[in-house]
Amino acid sequence: MYELYIANxxxxxxxxxxxxxMQEGGIEFREHxxxxxxxxxEDFRELSPSGKVPCLVDGSTVVxxxxxxxxxxxxxxxxxxPQDAEARAFARSAAAEMHSGFTELxxxxxxxxxVRMRLKETPPALMRDLARLETLxxxxxxxxxxxxxxxxxxxxxxxxxxxxxxxxxxxxxxxxRTAYVQRLLELPAMRRWYAAALAETFRDVPHEAEILEMASxxxxxxxxxx
Length: 226
Ligand SMILES: N[C@@H](CCC(=O)N[C@@H](CS)C(=O)NCC(=O)O)C(=O)O
Description:
This protein is of the alpha+beta class. About 50% of the residues lie in helices and about 15% in strands. It has a four-stranded mixed beta sheet, covered by helices on one side. The structure holds glutathione.
Protein backbone atom coordinates (compact mmCIF):
# COMPACT_ATOMS: atom_id res chain seq x y z
CA MET A 1 0.00 0.00 0.00
CA TYR A 2 1.35 3.42 -0.96
CA GLU A 3 1.55 6.11 1.71
CA LEU A 4 0.84 9.60 0.36
CA TYR A 5 1.79 12.61 2.47
CA ILE A 6 -0.12 15.77 1.69
CA ALA A 7 -0.92 19.13 3.31
CA ASN A 8 -4.24 20.92 3.94
CA UNK A 9 -6.69 20.29 1.14
CA UNK A 10 -7.83 23.90 1.13
CA UNK A 11 -4.36 25.22 0.22
CA UNK A 12 -2.07 22.50 -1.07
CA UNK A 13 -2.18 22.59 -4.85
CA UNK A 14 0.90 20.37 -5.22
CA UNK A 15 -0.66 17.72 -2.98
CA UNK A 16 -3.84 17.69 -5.05
CA UNK A 17 -2.05 16.55 -8.21
CA UNK A 18 -0.97 13.01 -7.27
CA UNK A 19 -3.95 12.65 -4.91
CA UNK A 20 -6.54 13.23 -7.65
CA UNK A 21 -4.57 11.14 -10.14
CA MET A 22 -4.45 8.18 -7.76
CA GLN A 23 -8.07 8.56 -6.68
CA GLU A 24 -9.43 8.82 -10.21
CA GLY A 25 -7.11 6.05 -11.43
CA GLY A 26 -8.14 3.64 -8.68
CA ILE A 27 -4.58 3.46 -7.29
CA GLU A 28 -4.98 2.67 -3.61
CA PHE A 29 -3.04 4.60 -1.00
CA ARG A 30 -3.13 5.59 2.63
CA GLU A 31 -3.40 9.35 3.08
CA HIS A 32 -1.40 11.28 5.69
CA UNK A 33 -2.43 14.92 5.99
CA UNK A 34 0.08 17.15 7.77
CA UNK A 35 -1.37 20.60 8.43
CA UNK A 36 0.92 23.48 7.47
CA UNK A 37 2.72 24.94 10.42
CA UNK A 38 1.84 21.96 12.61
CA UNK A 39 4.52 20.48 14.89
CA UNK A 40 4.36 17.32 12.79
CA UNK A 41 6.13 19.18 9.97
CA GLU A 42 9.41 18.85 11.86
CA ASP A 43 9.05 15.05 12.04
CA PHE A 44 7.97 14.98 8.43
CA ARG A 45 11.20 16.66 7.33
CA GLU A 46 13.07 13.56 8.41
CA LEU A 47 11.04 11.53 5.96
CA SER A 48 10.93 13.83 2.93
CA PRO A 49 14.34 15.04 1.69
CA SER A 50 12.90 18.37 0.48
CA GLY A 51 10.67 18.79 3.53
CA LYS A 52 7.83 19.44 1.08
CA VAL A 53 4.65 17.62 0.16
CA PRO A 54 3.48 15.69 -1.74
CA CYS A 55 5.70 12.78 -0.82
CA LEU A 56 4.98 9.17 -1.72
CA VAL A 57 6.37 6.30 0.31
CA ASP A 58 6.36 2.81 -1.17
CA GLY A 59 8.04 0.47 1.29
CA SER A 60 11.64 1.64 1.52
CA THR A 61 11.28 3.92 -1.51
CA VAL A 62 10.62 7.61 -0.91
CA VAL A 63 9.52 9.72 -3.88
CA UNK A 64 9.21 13.45 -3.38
CA UNK A 65 8.02 16.11 -5.83
CA UNK A 66 4.72 15.80 -7.70
CA UNK A 67 6.28 15.13 -11.11
CA UNK A 68 8.57 12.39 -9.81
CA UNK A 69 5.60 10.76 -8.05
CA UNK A 70 3.62 10.75 -11.29
CA UNK A 71 6.54 9.16 -13.17
CA UNK A 72 6.98 6.56 -10.42
CA UNK A 73 3.30 5.65 -10.66
CA UNK A 74 3.46 5.58 -14.47
CA UNK A 75 6.08 2.81 -14.26
CA UNK A 76 3.63 0.69 -12.27
CA UNK A 77 0.12 1.57 -13.45
CA UNK A 78 -1.53 1.97 -16.84
CA UNK A 79 -3.32 5.16 -17.79
CA UNK A 80 -1.11 7.70 -16.03
CA UNK A 81 0.18 8.89 -19.40
CA PRO A 82 -1.64 8.19 -22.70
CA GLN A 83 -0.84 5.03 -24.70
CA ASP A 84 -0.41 7.01 -27.90
CA ALA A 85 3.15 8.37 -28.25
CA GLU A 86 2.10 11.73 -29.68
CA ALA A 87 -0.50 12.30 -26.96
CA ARG A 88 2.04 11.16 -24.37
CA ALA A 89 4.63 13.68 -25.59
CA PHE A 90 2.02 16.43 -25.40
CA ALA A 91 0.83 15.34 -21.94
CA ARG A 92 4.36 15.21 -20.55
CA SER A 93 5.26 18.60 -22.05
CA ALA A 94 2.12 20.27 -20.71
CA ALA A 95 2.51 18.77 -17.23
CA ALA A 96 6.17 19.82 -17.14
CA GLU A 97 5.20 23.33 -18.26
CA MET A 98 2.69 23.55 -15.42
CA HIS A 99 5.24 22.18 -12.98
CA SER A 100 7.91 24.75 -13.84
CA GLY A 101 5.88 27.64 -15.26
CA PHE A 102 2.72 29.70 -14.81
CA THR A 103 4.52 31.47 -11.98
CA GLU A 104 2.34 34.56 -11.95
CA LEU A 105 -0.85 32.51 -11.87
CA UNK A 106 0.51 30.35 -9.05
CA UNK A 107 1.76 33.30 -7.00
CA UNK A 108 -1.07 35.74 -7.53
CA UNK A 109 -3.91 33.23 -7.35
CA UNK A 110 -2.76 30.98 -4.54
CA UNK A 111 -5.08 28.00 -4.12
CA UNK A 112 -7.72 28.33 -1.42
CA UNK A 113 -10.61 26.09 -2.46
CA UNK A 114 -13.16 27.34 0.05
CA VAL A 115 -13.12 31.08 -0.55
CA ARG A 116 -14.31 33.36 -3.31
CA MET A 117 -12.02 36.28 -4.04
CA ARG A 118 -11.81 39.35 -6.27
CA LEU A 119 -8.31 40.01 -7.60
CA LYS A 120 -7.03 43.49 -6.83
CA GLU A 121 -5.01 43.61 -10.03
CA THR A 122 -4.71 41.63 -13.24
CA PRO A 123 -1.25 42.62 -14.46
CA PRO A 124 0.02 41.72 -17.96
CA ALA A 125 2.07 38.81 -16.60
CA LEU A 126 -1.10 37.17 -15.24
CA MET A 127 -2.97 37.81 -18.49
CA ARG A 128 -0.07 36.18 -20.36
CA ASP A 129 -0.30 33.09 -18.14
CA LEU A 130 -4.07 32.88 -18.70
CA ALA A 131 -3.66 33.31 -22.47
CA ARG A 132 -1.02 30.58 -22.53
CA LEU A 133 -3.31 28.33 -20.55
CA GLU A 134 -6.08 28.82 -23.11
CA THR A 135 -3.74 28.08 -26.01
CA LEU A 136 -2.36 24.98 -24.35
CA UNK A 137 -5.76 23.61 -23.31
CA UNK A 138 -7.24 24.32 -26.75
CA UNK A 139 -4.31 22.56 -28.44
CA UNK A 140 -4.81 19.42 -26.35
CA UNK A 141 -8.59 19.33 -26.48
CA UNK A 142 -8.71 19.91 -30.24
CA UNK A 143 -5.79 17.67 -31.22
CA UNK A 144 -6.77 14.65 -29.13
CA UNK A 145 -10.55 15.11 -29.26
CA UNK A 146 -11.26 15.62 -25.53
CA UNK A 147 -12.98 15.57 -23.19
CA UNK A 148 -9.64 15.55 -21.35
CA UNK A 149 -6.42 17.25 -22.40
CA UNK A 150 -4.75 14.25 -24.01
CA UNK A 151 -7.86 12.38 -25.12
CA UNK A 152 -10.71 10.36 -23.70
CA UNK A 153 -9.34 9.60 -20.24
CA UNK A 154 -8.37 11.69 -17.27
CA UNK A 155 -4.62 11.37 -16.70
CA UNK A 156 -1.55 12.97 -15.18
CA UNK A 157 -1.71 16.01 -17.44
CA UNK A 158 -5.23 16.81 -16.23
CA UNK A 159 -4.17 16.19 -12.65
CA UNK A 160 -1.47 18.82 -13.11
CA UNK A 161 -4.10 21.37 -14.14
CA UNK A 162 -6.65 20.33 -11.49
CA UNK A 163 -5.57 23.12 -9.09
CA UNK A 164 -6.21 25.65 -11.88
CA UNK A 165 -9.86 24.59 -11.85
CA UNK A 166 -10.10 25.47 -8.14
CA UNK A 167 -8.26 28.73 -8.77
CA UNK A 168 -10.67 29.59 -11.61
CA UNK A 169 -13.56 29.01 -9.20
CA UNK A 170 -12.00 30.97 -6.34
CA UNK A 171 -10.85 34.00 -8.34
CA UNK A 172 -13.54 33.81 -11.06
CA UNK A 173 -10.81 33.69 -13.68
CA UNK A 174 -11.89 34.68 -17.13
CA UNK A 175 -11.12 31.47 -19.02
CA UNK A 176 -12.88 30.59 -22.26
CA ARG A 177 -12.48 26.85 -21.67
CA THR A 178 -15.09 26.83 -18.90
CA ALA A 179 -16.39 23.41 -19.96
CA TYR A 180 -12.99 21.86 -19.24
CA VAL A 181 -12.79 23.65 -15.87
CA GLN A 182 -16.27 22.37 -15.04
CA ARG A 183 -15.36 18.85 -16.13
CA LEU A 184 -12.43 18.86 -13.71
CA LEU A 185 -14.51 20.30 -10.86
CA GLU A 186 -17.16 17.63 -11.39
CA LEU A 187 -14.81 14.64 -11.19
CA PRO A 188 -15.81 12.52 -8.18
CA ALA A 189 -12.31 12.82 -6.67
CA MET A 190 -12.32 16.61 -7.10
CA ARG A 191 -15.69 16.79 -5.34
CA ARG A 192 -14.32 14.72 -2.47
CA TRP A 193 -11.23 16.94 -2.19
CA TYR A 194 -13.41 20.07 -2.26
CA ALA A 195 -15.78 18.75 0.42
CA ALA A 196 -12.82 17.91 2.65
CA ALA A 197 -11.28 21.35 2.01
CA LEU A 198 -14.53 23.06 3.03
CA ALA A 199 -14.66 21.00 6.22
CA GLU A 200 -11.19 22.11 7.31
CA THR A 201 -11.24 24.58 10.17
CA PHE A 202 -7.48 25.08 10.23
CA ARG A 203 -6.26 28.46 8.90
CA ASP A 204 -2.63 28.90 7.87
CA VAL A 205 -1.73 32.49 8.70
CA PRO A 206 0.97 32.95 5.97
CA HIS A 207 -1.35 31.53 3.28
CA GLU A 208 -4.27 33.67 4.44
CA ALA A 209 -2.08 36.79 4.38
CA GLU A 210 -0.68 36.00 0.93
CA ILE A 211 -4.16 35.54 -0.50
CA LEU A 212 -5.51 38.76 1.05
CA GLU A 213 -2.54 40.71 -0.28
CA MET A 214 -3.54 39.83 -3.84
CA ALA A 215 -7.32 39.76 -3.60
CA SER A 216 -10.35 40.88 -1.58
CA UNK A 217 -12.62 38.39 0.11
CA UNK A 218 -16.11 37.99 -1.33
CA UNK A 219 -17.18 34.87 0.52
CA UNK A 220 -15.69 32.28 2.86
CA UNK A 221 -17.47 28.94 2.55
CA UNK A 222 -15.22 27.01 4.95
CA UNK A 223 -16.30 25.50 8.23
CA UNK A 224 -15.28 27.43 11.33
CA UNK A 225 -13.71 26.05 14.45
CA UNK A 226 -16.16 26.11 17.36
N1 LIG B 1 7.92 21.27 -6.83
C1 LIG B 1 7.30 20.65 -5.67
C2 LIG B 1 6.60 21.70 -4.85
C3 LIG B 1 6.14 21.20 -3.50
C4 LIG B 1 5.66 22.30 -2.57
O1 LIG B 1 6.04 23.48 -2.71
N2 LIG B 1 4.85 21.91 -1.60
C5 LIG B 1 4.36 22.83 -0.57
C6 LIG B 1 2.92 22.51 -0.26
S1 LIG B 1 1.80 22.87 -1.55
C7 LIG B 1 5.11 22.59 0.73
O2 LIG B 1 5.39 21.48 1.08
N3 LIG B 1 5.37 23.67 1.48
C8 LIG B 1 5.92 23.55 2.81
C9 LIG B 1 7.25 24.17 2.97
O3 LIG B 1 7.78 24.73 1.99
O4 LIG B 1 7.75 24.11 4.10
C10 LIG B 1 6.38 19.53 -6.16
O5 LIG B 1 6.08 19.51 -7.36
O6 LIG B 1 5.98 18.65 -5.38
